[in-house]
Amino acid sequence: MKSYLFPTYQRKSFEIVEGTGSWAKDNLGNTYLDFTSGIGVTNLGYQHPLIESALIEQAQKIWHTTNLYENHLQEAVAQRLANGQDFLSYFCSSGAEANEAAIKLARKYTGKSEIISFENSFHGRTYGAMSATPQANIQAGFSPLVPDFVYLPFNEITSLERQINQNTAAVIVELIQGEGGIVPADIEWVQQVTQLCHDNDVLLIIDEVQTGIGRTGTLFAYEQYQIEPDIFTSAKALGNGFPVGAMVGKEKLKSAFGVGSHGTTFGGNPLAMAVANEVLTIMQTTDLLSEVQEKSNYFFERLTTINPKYIKEIRGKGLMVGIELKESLAVVDVINELTDVGLLTLNAGTNTLRLLPPLTLTKAEIDIGIDKLKAVLENPTF
Ligand SMILES: Cc1ncc(COP(=O)(O)O)c(C=O)c1O
Fold it and tell me: What are the record keywords, sorted (predicted)?
């Protein structure tokens, strides 16, 4: 059948048409345990009753107003994102846009142009975010990219010490590289990067698009690194499936993002804000985050019971899990076979199986997932 879509995605041949909690149903009647959460988006599961009511209630009041009027919901979400610290928020609709805003703010505030990012990282597909994403397959054919982006090795401090200079505006980093293969940053390295930025008046941008909103066991991953970013970005799970992004920066940066300096029609839309406010309220007022840490321990413990015949390394934090496979087993084949036995999973980086289950999953569901992983990873049929 002819498709009227640009073929930018490699799609499976079925459609997910329904979801409840950790479970998804396709148009052919198959049920799956979903360890993708729509690539780290539906962190609170499908059809969460409080999120659903927040959206429906707001939909019955007003869907959209422009940013030319007061918006109490934006204020509420920004206050939750600040979490008692001197952070201000700018709202948009995606992770790439949040990083784009961060890059623009960093250049404008510092009056410098160089942005440093790290090999294997992923920050999005818009020109600025893509220019910070040093992956050949992502940048190919789109040159010229935005100038003054410099790429350095991840988890290695000497090159950064050498590179930081009078024209460096910002360093942008993922604390666990998500698309890059679930590769965690070393805590000492992150602290050294933070210190170097501080000593050289360079802004530190933490990209929390995939790691944020409870994914690693704290609201944002940076909380576990004993650092304070100048800017952090959020999207994906902030709206649990409703498109929303946020660029959150220190109050000292306020003067560079004055009236007319940046903006977008849908940023902070009432529907998005009603949902984000409910997501953050759940994260900040329930035991969910401590439960994530507990479930994480259980998950990683159970993963070690899988026969490691085809496993090179298991990495991650919280419920952000990467299983790097040996070359003898191709991750795409594993994903297909897991789909056949009813478990949805993702790939990332080099031959790495990526698991991003909803944070609300139960231990019993972890057990079901582990049984399916065992079935395929111990006895692949291909
Ligand atoms: C770390 C990180 N940054 C940015 C993005 C881009 O977000 P979006 O796809 O919403 O533009 C992603 C998406 O996967 C991501 O994982």
Answer: Amino-acid biosynthesis, Aminotransferase, Arginine biosynthesis, Cytoplasm, Pyridoxal phosphate, Transferase
Expressed as residue numbers, the domain containing 264 is: 50-285
Q: Could you tell me if residue 171 is inside a domain?
A: yes
**In this structure, are 149 and 252 located in the same domain?**
yes
Q: Which atom of ligand 1 is nearest to the CA of 245?
A: 10
- Going by alpha carbons, the residue nearest to atom 9 of ligand 1 is 95
Find out whether 239 is annotated in a ligand binding site.
no
Pocket test for ligand 1, best of 210, 215, 220, 346 (most atoms within 8 A of CB): 210
CA-angle at 381, arms to 379 and 382, nearest 5°: 125
Residue 122 Cβ inside 6 Å of ligand 1? The answer reads yes
Q: In this predicted model, what pLDDT tens digit does every residue of 10-66 receive, in sequence order?
A: 999 999 999 999 999 999 999 999 999 999 999 999 999 999 999 999 999 999 999
> Which ligand 1 atom is at minimum distance from the Cα of 208?
1
360 is in an annotated binding site: no
Residues 61-85: tens digit of each pLDDT: 999 999 999 999 999 999 999 999 9
Ligand 1 atom nearest 124 alpha carbon = 6
Contact 300, 319 (CB under 8 A): no
Cis upstream peptide for 144 (omega within 30°): yes
Same domain, 21 and 160: no
Which of 36, 41, 117, 123 best tests ligand 1's pocket when mutated (most atoms within 8 Å of CB)? 123
Longest dimension (CA), the chain: 60
Q: Are residues 61 and 94 in the same domain?
A: yes
Q: Cβ–Cβ contacts within 10 Å for residue 141, how many?
A: 6
Minimal CA–CA distance to 175: which of 133, 215, 130, 207? 207
Tally of domains in the chain: 2
pLDDT number for residue 382: 79
**Interval 100-110 mean pLDDT:** 98
Please tell me whether residues 240 and 293 are part of one structural domain.
no
Nearest to 194 by CA among 215, 176, 173: 173
What would the pLDDT profile of 276-307 be if each residue is shown by its tens digit? 999 999 999 999 999 999 999 999 999 999 99
